[in-house]
């Protein structure tokens, strides 16, 4: 969709320019409160199964471990809790959008480990579009880590309960997507972010 791509390019470019002061402040705070890089990059699966590096502000200590975050994960830094609460850690993904690896709106990109266990028919549908920064699943399950924290087996909970719900939202989005629906999702996301900060 040409209109969608132009919309992504224009808004991501404007967003990056406007957010430069915030990015500088966040970068300084990350460096002052923990050791490691400012950004966290991780392999995710994009459109047509192409692997790309998703960019986020680093909110955790630089250590290997589970690929899902659970509640008040001990790996999350002091500033990381704040960045996650207000979804500020997600903003660098505007670079991914500008580069064409992601869209502003679309199914959230998953790590290869979990995409590998998608049902074949669903994988084909979900990976037919660019992944997005936000979608209906992100809005409906914004407290996903808190939900997982209550489980005795968080990864099993994610695979068997959370992921199927996300995929259901993703398939519905792909099959019914329009430019105006994207606008509705973006507005709903901005409202959600505002409510988190108030």
The overall pLDDT average reads 91
Number of domains: 1
Rounded radius of gyration (Å): 16 Å
3D shape: globular
Q: Percentage of helical residues?
A: 55-70%
Number of strands: 4
Low-confidence stretches: none
Measured by DSSP, the beta-strand proportion falls in 5-15%
**From N to C, what is the helix and strand string?**
HHEEHHEHHEHHHH
Question: What distance separates the N and C termini?
Answer: 35 Å
* Strand numbers in spatial order across the main sheet: 1-2
Largest sheet: 2 strands, antiparallel
Summing up helix and strand content along with how strands pair, one would put the structural category as mainly alpha
Count of runs of 4 or more consecutive helical residues: 10
Strands, helices and their partners?
Layout: H1 2-18, H2 20-33, E1 39-45, E2 51-57, H3 78-85, H4 93-99, E3 103-105, H5 112-115, H6 120-126, E4 132-134, H7 136-140, H8 144-149, H9 154-176, H10 179-197
Parallel strand pairs: 3-4
Antiparallel strand pairs: 1-2
